[in-house]
Amino acid sequence: DEQLDLDDGRWEDIHVVTGALKLFLRELPEPLVPFSHFDKFIAAIKIQDLSLRGQCIRDLVLSLPPAHHDTMKVLFRHLCRVVEHKEENRMSVQSVAIVFGPTLLRPASEEGNMAMHMVFQNQVVEHILNHYGYIF
């Protein structure tokens, strides 16, 4: 119910806005990619055949619950626009994936190799950014 005035000077620093978005996404009870889909996305990004990998990730995105899918579509459309300005903002596809990968996809428990998970989490985000038009 809080009313925010985005013209307030506090919001001029893009890092504040980005940090707030990441914090919001991180504190969701379930990540944007539901826990039930985490292992499926990780398995899909490991597929060597690029065509099959692309189809599998697209099918997984389409299988997400509507609220997750629709939010992901809007978020990734925005992130693609951020990447379009990489010369000014230094946010390449890889940089965006590093920043958002672990926030958008995370396992239900941190039992496995977190460093290895992070590599694949970032690759999934990179793939979706690079193939946004095909996926959505």
UniProtKB/TrEMBL annotation:
Gene3D superfamilies: Rho GTPase activation protein. It comes from the Eukaryota. InterPro entries: Rho-GAP, Rho_GTPase_activation_prot, RhoGAP_dom. One of its GO terms (molecular function) is GTPase activator activity. Transmembrane segments: none annotated. One of its GO terms (cellular component) is cytoplasm. Residues 1-136 form the Rho-GAP domain. Pfam families: RhoGAP. Keywords: GTPase activation. One of its GO terms (biological process) is signal transduction. This is RHG27 protein.
